[in-house]
Design goal:
Glucose Oxidase, domain 1; Enzyme I, Chain A, domain 2; 4 domains; eight-stranded mixed sheet; eight-stranded parallel beta barrel; 26 helices; binds phosphoenolpyruvate; binds magnesium ion; transport; metal-binding; magnesium
């Protein structure tokens, strides 16, 4: 292999660094030796190492060349001076005339005025800046790109020393843009209420690269090539699987495979390895650099691409460390675990035993994302949009996930722990009160009966049906069991499952919604092709009408499972009456087929549609004579009505479901359904929140379908409500010009003693 002068210097330097790191003495002694070594090797008069301390302060920890009395005295805030600038932007600076730079900050105690040129790099670990490493020269030296890279490589080795906790307490190692010191309290957004106490389990835990410096770079290059080849062949094996022969899967896999051949990315890893790092350290270095810089990028598309490379880098690290299983999954989950993730798909949540999950903390996510809905069904508290939480938490750190208040405590002090334990027992008591309500009817003070149904999607949910006293299951999301399997279940498997559900419901009504995949609900064995707007793309009934075999099999299984009992079938994402007509036709064909085969038919078949695409609301007069019921899916409806991506945290709270436009829409649909004598319910998340549920009742909706834990609070609200006075008040608000009716409705509830 041809090596340039610069890389051979760096390799020699790395060899010496390895000896110093492995040698005796305190961490400070080792750091002192390291700066001397770097200065000598890079022919610089000065080499200094600044370490990030609590409160975003960079402290001079070691120097060769500056005045020694400034060590541990000179401190710069992040973004102050050139050192602070390097930390703030997580990028290197190489300046021949540093003093001419507008950010230059002169510190007299250091005696640095005689040094004109400066080259500095951030010390990064994970995506977190732990310090800054600087060299300076008296002359106006033009540092080369290779020299910057050499210093970056050295900084990576130093990062391990800083992060070890031997130089400063680990509790001080906070990220650049977080002011917190331990214990941490982080703000997020409530995605599901409840409080959980446990230890952190990091979804995709970071593989800790222990061997950083290579014995022989050629061997490392070979290892890298082998690991990449292994990943490519894993993808090739996938291509040969019969169930993945379909076009869409190939597209996704092809795209992924293309990343493994991305020249720019591979070159950067190769370069890092050639400077003397091991293959895994090279991958880690490129991953850290990209993540640190991309953290400063707001563009969603670029960040998405970063995720792809990050995923690939993680796989490569797993491959190189001999662990090609996905890490941190189910098996050795602690008794009480708080799962922490950047984002997680609803299916991935099933990799963890829900009985041991006490909470979920996400860097992204929004109230209507499917993982939040699944977590709600499992009664797991969720806090979303907790900025940079993964950088501040280590595996097995004690964590409190306070879903009620949208906050997370990491390594909480005893008094906070104690008060949470108290809150948990108060919650148990509240549950006992709701349990007592179980057998009381959901009737308002002025005698209006509200039907309270439960949303479900897992067999596990059925146990709550009788506990919470719901009238039945108003939305059974059939895609959830599909998502938890490794292959599409056949008719027999589906029949078995649906029969069990009906058996366990013991005569209470169950509304089965046909397969609603696509958008953020991805089947592992049926990847859709890449779409720019998956929420507006090939999803739900659009897929099952285009692939009618899937719809036919599901309807056949439902007819068989009913075995003479009542069957309610609901079609999702219907955008026009013609789609409903087409779906009904498929159902009629299946009914005829099963009749001919002698299957006992359901005593009654109720057919309904979700109303979640606004266009359908303008065809209600044509639609309503064809259906027995309509259920409003407020999650998708909100997204389409306001043109707002339900998964995008940045705009998640821009519009309120209690905005006049939304409330008016509900009122209009409710009036039409009443006129046509068609049952109307709401089964989106909106119905599960007491104030929103009160409003829905106010516009005439009499059936709500909510998660099991919400039944108690909603029933309490219903039993304290006087519908007549609410209806007349709400009528006066329909033409409001306000952004939201929330505060007025809350005012009504308070004035009229409605329990929220
Ligand atoms: C909805 O969109 O409101 C709904 C109930 O369906 P899902 O959340 O499963 O898309
Ligand atoms: Mg929906």
């Amino acid at each position: 292999m041809v090596t340039s002068g610069a890389t051979s210097v760096s390799r020699r330097l790395l060899g010496r660094l390895r000896d110093v790191m492995a040698g005796g003495g305190t961490a400070q002694d080792r750091l002192d030796k390291v700066v001397t070594l770097i200065a000598r090797d890079m022919v610089a008069e000065v080499c200094s190492c600044y370490v990030m301390r609590a409160g975003e302060v960079l402290e001079l920890f070691a120097t060769e060349g500056l005045k020694h009395e400034s060590v541990h005295r000179t401190r710069l805030r992040v973004a102050e001076g050139l050192v602070g600038d390097i930390a703030a932007h997580a990028r290197p600076l190489a300046l021949a005339d540093a003093q001419a730079h507008p950010h230059f900050a002169y510190r007299p105690e250091t005696g640095e005025e005689v040094y004109h040129s400066l080259m500095g790099v951030p010390i990064i670990r994970g995506s977190r800046v732990l310090g800054v490493l600087v060299v300076q020269n008296r002359t106006m030296r033009h540092y080369t790109e290779e020299e910057v890279e050499t210093l970056e490589t050295v900084a990576m080795v130093l990062a391990e020393l800083v992060a070890s906790g031997d130089l400063v307490d680990r509790s001080e190692l906070v990220p650049v843009d977080g002011n917190a010191v331990l214990p941490l309290r982080l703000e997020g957004v409530r995605l599901n209420g409840g409080v959980g106490l446990g230890v952190a389990v990091l979804h995709r835990p970071r593989i800790v690269v222990r061997r950083l410096v290579a014995e022989d770079p050629d061997i490392e290059m070979e290892r890298l090539t082998r690991a990449l080849a292994a990943i490519k062949s894993q993808i090739d094996v996938l291509f040969t699987r019969p169930e993945l022969r379909d076009g869409e899967h190939r597209d996704v896999l092809e795209t992924y495979r293309m990343f493994t051949e991305d020249k720019g990315w591979l070159n950067r890893i190769g370069e890092a390895v050639r400077t003397g790092l091991t293959a895994e350290a090279g991958v880690q270095k490129v991953l850290d650099d990209t993540r640190a810089r991309m953290n400063l990028i707001a563009d969603a598309y670029l960040r998405e691409r970063l995720h792809d490379f990050e995923d690939l880098a993680n796989r490569l690290l797993q491959q190189l460390s001999g662990d090609d299983e996905e890490g941190g999954r189910g098996g050795d989950l602690p008794e009480a675990a708080i799962l922490v993730a950047r984002n997680i798909g609803p299916m991935e949540l099933f990799d963890y035993d829900p009985r041991r999950l006490r909470g979920l903390v996400l860097e992204e996510g929004s109230t209507t994302s499917h993982v939040a809905i699944v977590a709600r069904a499992l009664d797991i508290p969720v806090v979303g949009r907790v900025k940079d939480v993964l950088d501040m938490i280590d595996s097995l750190d004690p964590v409190i996930c306070d879903g009620d208040n949208g906050q997370v405590f990491i390594r909480p002090p005893d008094d906070i722990r104690d008060s949470v334990v108290e809150a948990l027992s108060a919650r148990q008591q509240r549950r006992a009160i709701y349990a007592r309500l179980r057998d009381l009817p959901a009737v308002t003070r002025d005698d209006t009966r509200i039907a309270l149904y439960m949303n479900a999607g897992l067999l596990l949910d059925l146990q709550h049906l009788h506990e919470c006293g719901a009238d039945g299951i108003g939305l059974y999301r059939t895609e959830l069991p599909f998502m938890a399997r490794s292959a599409l279940p056949n008719v027999d498997a589906q029949t078995l499952l649906y029969r069990k559900i009906l058996d366990q419901a013991e005569g209470k009504r169950v509304v089965f919604r046909t397969l609603d995949v696509g958008g953020d609900k991805v089947l592992p064995y049926w990847n859709p092709s890449e779409e720019d707007n998956p929420a507006l793309g090939w999803r739900s009934i659009r897929i099952t009408l285009d692939r009618p075999a899937v719809m036919r099999q599901q309807l056949r299984a439902l007819l068989r499972a009913a075995g003479g009992r009542e069957l309610s079938v609901m079609f999702p994402m219907v955008a026009e009456v013609a789609e409903l007509v087409q779906a009904r036709r498929i159902l009629d064909i299946e009914i005829a087929r099963e009749t001919a085969a002698g299957t006992p038919l359901p005593e009654r078949i109720r057919v309904g549609t979700m109303l979640e695409v606004p266009a359908l609301a303008f065809q209600l007069d044509a639609l309503l004579p064809l259906v027995d019921f309509v259920s409003i899916g407020s999650n998708d409806l909100t997204q389409f009505l306001f043109a707002i991506d339900r998964g995008n945290p940045r705009i998640a709270e821009r519009y309120d479901p209690l905005a006049p436009g939304m409330v008016r829409f509900m009122h209009m649909v409710s009036e039409k359904c009443r006129a046509h004598g068609v049952d109307l319910s709401v089964c989106g998340e909106m119905a599960a929140r007491p104030l929103e549920a009160m409003t829905l009742i106010g516009v005439g909706i009499r059936t709500l379908s909510v998660t099991a834990p919400a039944i108690g609070p909603i029933k309490t609200m219903v039993r304290s409500l006087d519908v007549a006075s609410l209806e007349s008040y709400l009528f006066t608000l329909l033409d409001s010009r306000d952004h939201s009716l929330r505060s007025r409705l809350r005012g009504f509830a308070i004035d009229h003693g409605v329990s929220l």
